[in-house]
Amino acid sequence: MSDNTAGPTAEPISPSAPEEFGLVQVWWGDGKGKTTAALGMATRAVGHGYRVHLLQFMKGGTSTVEDVRGEYNAIAALPGFSYENAGHYGWHGFLDGSEDDEHEARAKGALDRAREIMQASADADLSTPQDADGPPEDGVNMLVLDEILYAANRGLVDPEDVLGLIESKPDDLELVLTGGHERPEFLTDHADLITEVSKEKHPIDAGQGARKGTEF
């Protein structure tokens, strides 16, 4: 009897250019899974040979979460996938000993970095395959700005600056914005996909801390 449980055979990943990229996606809400969803989609894109960069605005370490997250190790092992974290240690406004001024400075630095990568992508020919080993300054097919909406909710970046990123986006760059528990009304008319990730039940409400391998 033949074994039909193995599923499709994985193929080698080689650089390729997406034919239908160019939308703006928004993932927000009070539920777990916004970054997780974005990373899953980014992994799918990388599997097709597309160039992806993850720029995290807020995810620094805390007393209960390690600085090195599992996704960083996984991303480093995938061709065409890169990341950087601009977040300050701790969480803004949480009275955890972190300096709010430093959070704001880091968030604005991340905004400038997003503009830089956006411009590089505009200058690049995204209709041709991008070098999987090339720096994001050479241009990317998908840019994930993780927790940028949280930064906008907190006033660390101006929502108008977020809109400015969308307006300057190259037509063939897929832009993914995540974060925030407050509905980003300012994006309603500017995003092509908006998903609210809502919480029905979460173990944190029962005192469970962040778990290695699920939350970081």
From TrEMBL:
It comes from the Archaea. The keyword Transferase applies. It holds the Pfam family CobA_CobO_BtuR. Keywords: Transferase. GO terms for biological process: cobalamin biosynthetic process. InterPro entries: CblAdoTrfase_CobA (IPR003724), P-loop_NTPase (IPR027417). The keyword Transferase applies. One of its GO terms (molecular function) is corrinoid adenosyltransferase activity. This is Cob(I)alamin adenosyltransferase.
